[in-house]
């Protein structure tokens, strides 16, 4: 592959609170180390990075993603893996052999990827390929901006609390094949994570919770926990801290799972085809197996 020389990156903001588009990046060429370092700096600072018009192969997506760290092979999410590349998590609504795709309902709740694991990813790199005629949008929210928007008193209240993340809390689990659900349960026990985490590269404090998987604070009952968790969740999805992305084919969004969460909207016609794939870049170990 031809190596591209270092370039000054032209950018535009995606929303008030976070997100940036970087222009004139071509991932069909291997980027210079300095360019990758600058993308990483912008990604850390802005939480999500949009690169449009990337008509790349699965191998090129994997090679680009590796520049940012070790890739998850999705061992605990095997049913969703690309058949030839374990590094790729496939998000598809296209039936296979006349049966609904296993991933047709994936991501239909606000979450940060794999927060229910002991090595949650630092980020994910998502490549849109086939899209419905209208819709198929993804929403993003900034945990970092939402944390900054809390009162000092509330920051004191939540500092040092851990919350339980349980993959089985996802409502769409009820629509899935019971055999698949049993397999996912076995591979993904509930995990406790700090409710506030300092981003390990920027030091910026970020909330860390999800809409359906975070149901309890360690040491509290569900009834005691839920009002606080619900308030924090609603605070995070205040429009002030969100961005809605309308995908074009070949868009890439790199999202930082430490400082943002996202939601795949079901805003398209039933049966419409949407086919995307993403890589998941492993982060630092975080959390512990949740006490009963
Ligand atoms: C996800 O990775 O959570 C899915 C996002 C999407 O399909 O828009």
Descriptive labels:
single chain, 292 residues, alpha+beta, Double-stranded beta-helix, 7-stranded mixed beta sheet, 4-stranded antiparallel beta sheet, 6 helices, binds succinic acid
Task: Give a written overview of the molecule.
40% of the residues are buried. Strand 9 and strand 10 (205-207) form a beta hairpin. The chain has helices spanning 33-46, 58-66, 143-148, 152-158, 178-187, 222-236, and strands at 11-13, 20-22, 48-51, 89-92, 121-130, 138-142, 162-165, 191-194, 196-198, 205-207, 214-217, 242-245, 252-256, 260-264, 275-282, 288-289. It has one domain (11-289): Clavaminate synthase-like (Double-stranded beta-helix, 4-Layer Sandwich). The model has no long low-confidence stretch (mean pLDDT 95). With 292 residues, the chain is of the alpha+beta class. Helices cover 21% and strands 24% of the residues. It binds succinic acid. Succinic acid binds at residues 91, 106-107, 138, 262, 264, 276, 278.
Summarize the structure.
It is built from six helices and 16 strands. The protein has a single domain (11-289), classed as Clavaminate synthase-like (Double-stranded beta-helix, 4-Layer Sandwich).
What small molecules does the structure contain? Answer: succinic acid
* Radius of gyration computed on alpha carbons: 19 Å
CATH first level: which class? Alpha Beta
User: How does the helix and strand content classify structurally?
Assistant: alpha+beta
Q: Estimate the helix proportion, in percent.
A: 10-25%
Any guess at the CATH architecture?
Answer: 4-Layer Sandwich
The coarse silhouette is: globular
Specify the number of helices.
Answer: 6
The span between the termini is 52 Å
Average pLDDT rating: 95
The neighbouring-strand order within the major sheet is 1-2-3-13-5-15-4
Unreliable stretches covering 5 or more consecutive residues: none
Described by strand count, sense and barrel closure, the largest sheet is:
7 strands, mixed
Number of DSSP E strands? 16
